[in-house]
Amino acid sequence: MTDLKDIIAGCISNNRVSQEKLYRQFYPGLHSLCRQFFYDEQDIVTALNNGMLNVYKNIGSYDAAKGEFFNWCYSIVRNAAITHLGTIKSLNTVQLDATFHYDYCENPLIEMESEDLFLYLDKLPPATRAVSSLYYREDFSIKEISQQLNISDGTVKWHLSECRNKLSKLLHT
Question: What does DSSP assign to residue 66?
Answer without folding.
Answer: G
